[in-house]
Amino acid sequence: MTIISTPRLKLREFATSDAPFILELLNEEGFLRFIGDKGVRSPADAREYILKGPIDSYRRYGFGLYLASLLDGTPIGICGLVKRATLPDVDVGFAFLTLHWSKGYASEAAAAVMEHGRHVLGLGRIVAITALENQGSMAVIGKIGLQLERRVTLVEGGPELNLYGPAPHAPGG
């Protein structure tokens, strides 16, 4: 079932049958470099990732990461909302297969997810986080109206990350 539609994409909840796509995405060099190694090395690992990540999040919070596909159903990435124990706010997250970078898909999906979060789910504040060197994601985050607030660490001893939040409203705006 499609949760969000854009002019070029459909975003839907994950199913365990999406394991082959997750296995491919989570082992791409860009994902490993900028997001991290999730230890997904087999179809069984990918099914477990889907069950314990997105599907558990749908059950617990009513939202999560969605599979982003072209209108013909070809999966190209993930985009959605994540509630982390170590952040007070929900964050928008995204990752796309390298083949689909620099085509505007991440910006299109992330903007639609932000709109969905605010207007359908009623979330007040949505943030984003990136690795310090992830220029591509920083550009997407700027395009969806978030700006750098501060640096954070999600887990003790973990890497420092950039945290982006909504731009403050102008006086009288």
Summarize the structure.
The protein has 173 residues and is an alpha+beta fold.
User: Proportion of β residues?
Assistant: 25-35%
Low-confidence stretches: none
Number of helical runs? 5
Mean pLDDT: 94
What value does the Rg take, in angstroms?
15 Å
Salient structural properties:
single chain; 173 residues; alpha+beta; Aminopeptidase; eight-stranded mixed beta sheet; 5 helices
Structure description:
This protein has 173 residues and is of the alpha+beta class. It has a single domain (2-166), classed as Gcn5-related N-acetyltransferase (GNAT) (Aminopeptidase, 3-Layer(aba) Sandwich), CATH 3.40.630. It is 33% helix and 29% strand. It has five helices and eight strands; from the N terminus they run ββαααβββαβαββ. The chain has helices spanning 19-26, 29-34, 43-61, 105-119, 135-143; strands at 2-5, 9-12, 65-70, 75-82, 90-96, 126-131, 146-153, 160-166. It has an eight-stranded mixed β-sheet. β7 and β8 (160-166) form a beta hairpin. The longest helix is centred in the N-terminal third of the chain and has 19 residues, at 43-61. The radius of gyration is 15 Å and the shape is globular. The N and C termini lie far apart (37 Å). The model has no long low-confidence stretch (mean pLDDT 94).
